[in-house]
Amino acid sequence: MSQAKSMTKKYTYQDYLQWSDEERWEIIDGVAYNMTPAPSVKHQIISRNMEVSLVNEIRSKKKECEVFDAPTDVVFDEYNVVQPDLLVVCDKTKITEENIKGAPDLIIEVTSPSTSLKDRREKKKLYEKFGVKEYLIVYPDEELVERFLIENDKYGAPEVFNWDETMRIESLGLDVDLWGIFEREREEKEEAPAQP
Asked: Which listed residue, 29, 91, 123, 150, has the most CB atoms within 10 A of its CB?
């Protein structure tokens, strides 16, 4: 898991603004997490493909939403500041010159060995607490996506999508072909011959 700063102090957004730009940090419940090392090339390719797919779908459906990638600060409150791999905001009042204030509609985290546990545990809990409608965790090595949807202020059991499936982004009403995200060739399923 990514390294956390000393637990003797509860860090705030004001502390975060003072830290060096040479390192990337996140704060979850006042605990600071170092986001180094940099993501792998595969991680970056998947993140880019997902971003391009979302931007194209949003534009083609003429939705009033914006897609952002890391490092974009999402400030939930004084003690919770994160930089998700990707996020979509449909409420323009949450978009400021410096950051996103409040819960995005959709957050996507692409896991890496150093962040996987935090993405599945601390971040899932954080996004649920602040009402992120839909949370996707992308697993590059397994080539699958886990989706959490909020209902009655809680995430239900995750739905899992394989690389060869089309996934509906429920919060945006859009479809994404995952084989394009993972850069895989999908074989078309043959129709069974008609019975005489």
From this structure: 123
